[in-house]
Amino acid sequence: MSVYVGDVGTILELETGVTLTGAAFTKITVKKPVSGDTFDWVGSIKGDDDSVIEYTIIEGDLDEAGRYYVQSYVSLGTWIGHGERTSFLVKNPVDA
Q1: What pLDDT does 95 receive?
Q2: Which long-range contacts (CB under 8 A, 24 or more apart) does 33-42 make?
């Protein structure tokens, strides 16, 4: 599946490899491809898989074409930390 600048409603899923039941918070740290801006998307635990953080893209989230870097961040009991960093490509639509 391709992702394009301006898309809304796309669901981003990050597999953490650990059970997140009882986590105080889950978020996804994002780095944009052009500006290098970093910010957080507040994630939720996926209902049918408690090791996955999911986030639904909203308007304005994907406003730059290029490779977005994302990393999970979780508070779980006495452990607070990051998951593996990964990335996804956002393309310009044909009419851009």
Answers
A1: 65
A2: 33/64, 33/65, 33/66, 33/67, 33/68, 33/90, 34/64, 34/65, 34/66, 35/64, 40/73, 41/12
